[in-house]
Write a structure and sequence with these properties.
- This protein has 440 residues and is an alpha+beta fold.
- It folds into 2 domains: 34-177, Adenine-n6-DNA-methyltransferase TaqI, Chain A, domain 2 (Alpha-Beta Complex); 231-416, Alpha-Beta Complex (Adenine-n6-DNA-methyltransferase TaqI, Chain A, domain 2), CATH 3.90.220.20.
- Helix content is 32%, strand content 22%.
- It contains 13 helices and 24 strands.
- The chain has helices spanning 20-23, 38-41, 84-89, 138-145, 148-156, 166-170, 179-222, 236-243, 267-270, 314-319, 372-384, 403-407, 416-439; strands spanning 5-6, 9-10, 34-37, 42-47, 61-64, 80-82, 94-95, 100-103, 112-114, 122-124, 128-133, 173-176, 263-266, 271-275, 285-291, 308-313, 327-330, 332-333, 343-345, 353-355, 359-364, 392-395, 398-401, 410-413.
- The strands form 8 sheets. The protein has a 4-stranded antiparallel β-sheet.
- The longest helix has 44 residues, at 179-222.
- One of its GO terms (biological process) is DNA restriction-modification system.
- This is Type I restriction endonuclease.
- GO terms for molecular function: DNA binding; endonuclease activity.
- Residues 30-201, 259-433 form the Type I restriction modification DNA specificity domain.
């Protein structure tokens, strides 16, 4: 049985030569297409071998292993080389331009790359199979290998993590169009992939823009530029003085720039700070969930999915349980790119969870002076502008928050009613932006 190639078209099999897969095909194809096995469309199918004694060279001829084969390209990171002498002894595993390299074992089973047309020469290990197409456009063949049809075919053959047998690979069938149509299909695939890449880039750009918009919204909010002031609101300073007659507003040079009704205070004036707990040593114990740094999400929310439960002293938990409205602050941890000082707002049930010794809690002293959610957004705005980088120190690779600096951070405080309007406005805008983000 022979496939004849004439003027770029594949001729159909004669009826007497029609194999079983032409009679019982997976799906119907156009009239000028045929079904063929990989064995019939390749002049070579075979895996490589590793040089005896792993006889690699510092430089020379590239030796590709499975970690060098990716779906979109050959990766030269961690590439090995062999000498020309070794290459001559392994001529049977030589890689040529336009070959397809297919990973046939391990976790990367099925990963496949086309060898570039300007490639010189190389070799492959026993974990990589060379397929040398002769009656098929390499890029079309590559698209077939990466298709869900090929993945399903591998499962049908029983191929698993242990590998894809050569015989099973050779007998896999493919729909084969004329050469001209193969080229058209490849051109369409490349066109659509190009559009997808543009969309993906635009999506990334839009996601970045949304993050920047959120940061700008918070910046406007803490400077009194997000919602209008109401002259009927009681000034924040009057409220603070009524609660604490000894209150003195901070004077750091920005006071004159404050909107009407606003004042400047500090975290220390507004909140008490409570350090996190260690595991208990004395009975009686209580088993409770402890909020750790690992429960802080990238968007400064609380992740309940991996809360750790430990035994803590009952008397300690009574002093260090979370209350709805607490702000949990990361005081140790962080990294060069993400300084400590990340803060999340606890909005769960009071008396259920505690918090680790790598964190601390800010608890509002007087609920009618500042809304915890306003303070959360304020600290978030400061964090996103890099303020916390000036409030951290590093010891033994661990970033630590300088508590005195953090607690003395200036807070621009509007009247409570304006705080509520600011929160509502932020959350209305953020809800819209989140909906856009989720639709991408």
């Amino acid at each position: 049985m022979v496939l004849e190639l004439r003027r770029g078209f594949f001729l159909s099999f004669s009826l007497s030569d029609t194999p079983h897969y032409q009679q019982d095909v997976p799906f119907k194809v156009p009239d000028n297409w045929v079904w063929a096995t990989i064995e019939e469309i390749c002049s070579k199918i075979g895996s490589g071998s590793t040089p005896r004694g792993s006889n690699y060279a510092v430089e020379g001829i590239p030796f590709f292993r499975s970690q060098n084969v990716y779906n979109d390209r050959l990766v030269y990171d961690d590439i090995k080389y062999i000498s020309d002498e070794t290459h001559q002894k392994m001529k049977g595993t030589e890689v040529l331009a336009n070959d397809l390299l297919l990973n046939i074992t391990g976790g990367s089973l099925g990963r496949c790359a086309v060898v570039p047309a300007d490639f010189n020469r190389g070799n492959v290990s026993q974990h990589v199979c060379i397929m040398r197409p002769i009656l098929i456009e390499p890029e079309y063949f590559h698209a077939l290998i990466l298709s869900s049809y090929f993945s399903k075919s591998m499962k049908i053959t029983g191929s698993g993590r242990e590998g894809l047998p050569k015989y099973s690979l050779e007998q896999m069938t493919f729909p084969l169009p004329p050469f001209a149509e193969q080229h058209r299909i490849v051109a369409e695939i490349e066109r659509w992939f190009s559009l997808i890449n543009i969309i993906e880039n635009d999506k990334y750009d839009l996601q970045t823009t949304i993050k920047q918009v959120k940061s700008k919204i918070l910046d406007l909010a803490i400077h009194g530029k997000l919602v209008p002031q109401d002259p009927n609101d009681e000034p924040a300073i009057e409220l603070l003085k009524r609660i604490n007659p000894d209150f003195t507003p901070c004077d750091n040079g920005h006071y004159a720039q404050l909107p009407d009704g606003w004042t400047i205070t500090t975290l220390k004036d507004l909140c008490e700070n409570i350090n996190g707990l260690w595991k208990g040593k004395k009975e009686p114990f209580v088993n409770v969930g402890v909020i750790r740094n690992a429960n802080f999400t990238k968007d400064f929310k609380l992740d309940y999915s991996n809360i750790e439960y430990i035994d803590v002293e009952q008397r300690t938990f009574a002093k260090r349980h979370l209350i709805n409205g607490d702000l949990i602050v990361e005081k140790s941890g962080g990294s060069d790119n993400n300084p400590v000082g990340r803060t999340i707002l606890y909005e769960g049930e009071s008396g259920v969870f505690s918090f680790s010794n790598f964190t601390m809690v800010l608890r509002i002293r007087y609920n009618d002076t500042v809304l915890s959610k306003y303070l959360y957004y304020y600290i978030l705005a400061k964090y996103q502008t890099g303020a916390m980088r000036l409030m951290q120190t590093q010891t033994t690779g661990l970033h630590n928050l300088i508590l005195d600096k953090f607690l003395l951070m200036s807070i621009c405080l509007p009247p409570p009613y304006e705080q509520k309007r600011i929160i509502d406005r932020i959350e209305t805008i953020f809800t819209t932006l989140d909906a856009i983000m989720e639709s991408l």
